[in-house]
Amino acid sequence: MNPLLELDHVSYAYHSKTGETYAVSDISFQVRKGEFIAITGPSGCGKSTLLSLISGLLTPDNGRILLPCTSCSDANIGYMLQKDHLFEWRTVYQNVILGLEIQHKLNEETISHVEKMLYDYGLSRFRDARPSELSGGMRQRAALIRTLALDPELLLLDEPFSALDFQTRLSVCDDVAGILKKERKTAILVTHDLSEAVSMADRILVLTRRPARIRRILDITFEQPELTPLAKRNAPEFRDYFNLLWKELNTHE
Q1: Fewest Cβ atoms nearer than 10 Å: which of 37, 91, 164, 223?
Q2: Radius of gyration for the alpha carbons in the chain, expressed in angstroms and rounded
């Protein structure tokens, strides 16, 4: 089966009057359809730059980023940022259809899909509310529905839970994992939270300090793969994976 996404020896440097600062160097990996990838590494190592390259916001200096599947020919990628960026002057419903409006894709089919997601994910009662009336977790669900409304082939998540308190963060991780599984989406998550990476991902890419290179790719398997991310934190495999990641990130190169 062809990969949904392939990075082939990708490098990128930020250019300024004082010279070049390399952010990522010689990055190669593949993502299969339906896979959930987590990317972690030291602070400032280039994780968000990597997502910007994948999304097309930045162009690699060297190497190639390939979306081989035909349905990705128009680079149908959804991007969920650290902040939800919901507009207070629009209702929840008006926020979640914003992308459809901008891309002129509002029709009976897409509206029906949005209505179903609002109902399935507990926001239908709040469709006419303003974002300020929602909890942090509900705002993130609304932001995710807005992203999924455009039916992206690939979803990029740039630390989308970092602004939430710990208890809400655990709950929203479960919500998002369940939604992505139900919607059968492929996702790449950037996170500093090792527990989050282990409990949500099928594979974890561990990056080195800047310029980021792939230090290790870790396959994550649980004896009971149907467990939610919250339940996985209590599984016996969780501690072993967490300790392994901690050691990788705290070993001097």
Answers
A1: 223
A2: 18
Model pTM score: 0.89
Question: Are the C-beta atoms of residues 248 and 60 closer than 8 Å to each other?
Answer: no
How many whole angstroms separate alpha carbon 48 and alpha carbon 71? 25
Number of Cβ atoms within 10 Å of the Cβ of 96? 26
- pLDDT by residue (tens digit) across 55-74? 999 999 999 999 865 444 45
- Please name the residues in contact with 166: beta carbons below 8 A apart, sequence gap of 6 or more: none
Backbone angles phi, psi at 143, to 5 degrees: -65, -40
Task: Identify the CA nearest to 174 among candidates 94, 239, 234, 220.
Answer: 234
Query: Which residues, at least 6 apart from 80, have a Cβ–Cβ distance to it below 8 Å?
Result: 143, 144, 147, 155, 156, 157, 158, 160
Classified as helix, coil or strand, 19 is strand
Between β-strands 19-31 and 5-16, what pairing exists: parallel, antiparallel or unpaired?
A: antiparallel
